[in-house]
Amino acid sequence: MPFSEVWLRLLVAAVLSGLIGFERERRGRAAGLRTHILVGVGSTLIMLTGMHLFEVYRGQVALDPTRLGAQVVSGIGFLGAGAIFRSKASVRGLTTAASLWTVAGVGLAVGSGFYTGAILTTGIALIVLLVLTKLEPRHMHGDGKEAADVNDDAGGE
């Protein structure tokens, strides 16, 4: 793959991941702009590496270029788990963990050249993070205080 295509894919991943990370950063989440960009760019690199290895060893050994990407999908769960916190009745960080997992998917899509899917997913993720947050109901306890929510946006982080 030409250098310019590798550079373009890594740059697109950084921009798309950065858009989602910027929203998390703006809300003061621990996994913000830099973390999301690193997950997206790293996922892109892993997909590019899988595709590169497939080309290098084509016909010599049986390789599946998606195997490295599959490991990202499961492995990002460990990173996401570190973003989830439980305190008494509240669970915080689920939305941030989900956004990290989504950014990993965006990175894999960009790495494979599936720009349309990556761009559409980024748009949907931003709508979910920016618009749907305003539509979520606030649950109330009997004492009139807001209940802890399983969503990190409503419950605070």
Structural features, described:
It is a single chain. By secondary structure, the chain is mostly helical. It has one domain. It is built from six helices and two strands; from the N terminus they run αααββααα. Strands 1-2 form a two-stranded antiparallel sheet. A hairpin with a 2-residue loop joins strand 1 (85-87) and strand 2 (90-92). Helix 1 runs antiparallel to helix 2 (33-56), helix 2 packs antiparallel against helix 3 and helix 4 runs antiparallel to helix 5 (115-135). The longest helix is centred in the first third of the chain and has 24 residues, at 3-26.
Principal-axis shape = elongated
Derived from helix and strand composition plus strand pairing, the structural class reads mainly alpha
Our count of domains comes out at: 1
The quaternary structure here is single chain
SSE blueprint:
Layout: H1 3-26, H2 33-56, H3 67-82, E1 85-87, E2 90-92, H4 94-111, H5 115-135, H6 152-155
Antiparallel strand pairs: 1-2
Helix pairs in contact: 1-2, 1-4, 1-5, 2-3, 2-4, 3-4, 4-5
Features:
two-stranded antiparallel sheet; 6 helices; 2 strands; disordered C terminus
Compact summary:
The chain is mainly alpha-helical. 68% of the residues lie in helices and 4% in strands.
